[in-house]
């Protein structure tokens, strides 16, 4: 119960990593505001079954107003906000030379601008509350390495990581900690089509020292740790959660 009675906002919380983290935070005693773009019924039901408070807010994180709506929901239902997990993101794989401007723009708006706007809204509320807080951005191993069909995606994840570093400085005076998680290859809806290629899937598994692709649940422990008081002196940090893939040069 590392997050007992804390209120956590999770963007992109209806599926994949976001859903796993939202449910995992509830398992550790948190009330959860689930931000989603389509439907969050399954996650809401799972959290309710744990006996924790939950509210779902539909919206587009690329819209600056969404951050304010999420904070408003947290305040109205649970009295405030203690943790933000900025997780919402998209990755429509595409070649570089003929990348449609709309694809680049939308990826930037959701992944980077969305993280910025929601972080800003939550940080302002945390400052008003005067009790600090924890902001966690879901970056990616892609912040550190390139991808042929991710020229629009990798810059956003590097940007999210950089955003947390700068926010750690800007918000430290208010007791607000800002860190990023860098997942490796995690089996989610974003890459399920890409990894349907069994040869490619086998290649990734071979590259990972722990011998398997990641599951969304693998991000729960790291997220809960950074959200909790156990990480009270951790800010501006980045934690790779990739099964050792990044360090494997073989």
TrEMBL record:
GO MF, any single term: quinone binding
Pathway in which the depicted protein is active: Carbohydrate degradation; L-rhamnose degradation
EC number(s) on file: 1.1.1.378
Keywords, ordered alphabetically: NADP, Oxidoreductase, Rhamnose metabolism
Domain annotation Ketoreductase: ranges: 6-177
Keyword Oxidoreductase among UniProt keywords: yes
One annotated GO biological process: rhamnose catabolic process
Family: Belongs to the short-chain dehydrogenases/reductases (SDR) family.
Record-given protein name: L-rhamnose 1-dehydrogenase (NAD(P)(+))
Originating species: Amantichitinum ursilacus
